[in-house]
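Chain A, query sequence.
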Amino acid sequence: MFGGGLTILARGNSFDYPRIGIVVSTRVARRAVARNRIKRIVRESFRLQQARLKGWDVVVIARPDVVKQTNKGLFASLEGHWKKLEQCARSSSI
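Chain A, predicted structure.
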């Protein structure tokens, strides 16, 4: 899944909890402050959605246009990705 400056890769795991990996390169955001802001928002959004994402390994890859997004816009983009992932999980488990 991609959109909103993010690419999300997901794969099922054998645990009862989700795991996350976050990739924000220096090409995406030169300054560490900007990279850390993106990672912090992704982690917080993931933390709030853990119950919905049970049993998934998720990798979030930031793209250059994510730096231009506001915190609110980034949260909204992530919420859309989590919803799509949840729908995918439901359809594959049925």
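The mean pLDDT is 90. The longest strand covers residues 6-12.
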